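Quarterly update from the structural biology core.
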Amino acid sequence: MAKNNSEYKGLILAAGYGSRLAGVSPVTSFKPLTPVNGKPLIFRTIESLDLAGCNEIIIVLGFGYEEIKKAILNIYEGEVPLTFVYNEQYELSNGVSVLSAADHLGDRFIMTMADHILGDSLMKIAKKTKLEDNTAALLVDFKLEEIFDMDDATKVLSKDGKIVSIGKQITEYNCVDTGLFVCTDGLLTELRKHYAEYGDTSISDGVQDLAENGNMFAIDIGGGMWQDVDTPEMLEQAEKLLSN
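Predicted structure, tokenized:
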């Protein structure tokens, strides 16, 4: 039976080096703490997951773990409990960060990355999304003409509301990954399988495996706003979007 999101955890992935954004901010060298229109990236993400109704937020850190954790705790005044997880293999792909938090996630969670700006309308969609067991959903953007950096985007081919394929290099696609997922532990199962076989795994690996079984859904964000913040140029674009 599908469950509603009052039972969902929130998951923020923030373990990487963030090297492409290094040197942009005069106040921090850590990407999750980089201000966007005066507010650190990760605080925007925390607020987004709070809006989606998550009852706890798990933050996976790696590079700069102690410094970033301390900075968040010094500033955070929200009511949703925060749990910090250290991914000691943070040089590996982002699926390993998901697995490092597995013990905290239960069987339902909403997942995103610390470097994604997500409009409120996306979080409202995530909040009302209900899933059957062993499935997951990715919020996708069909407005291809509005994607700021298509070369960097993770492309998705969706048919009849389900994902067929995903990846930065695929040539046939009709929408783009926004970095916002609604998940069951079915995603964790696929990530574990891939990690056991290859010693590494990305979220896209798990998504593709679910897709091949018909268990990965694509949810259109319509006119919703989002922006990945990986480079100085993307940061500038995010600030423009937030100022509109």
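Helices lie at 41-51, 65-75, 94-100, 102-105, 120-128, 185-198, 203-212, 232-243.
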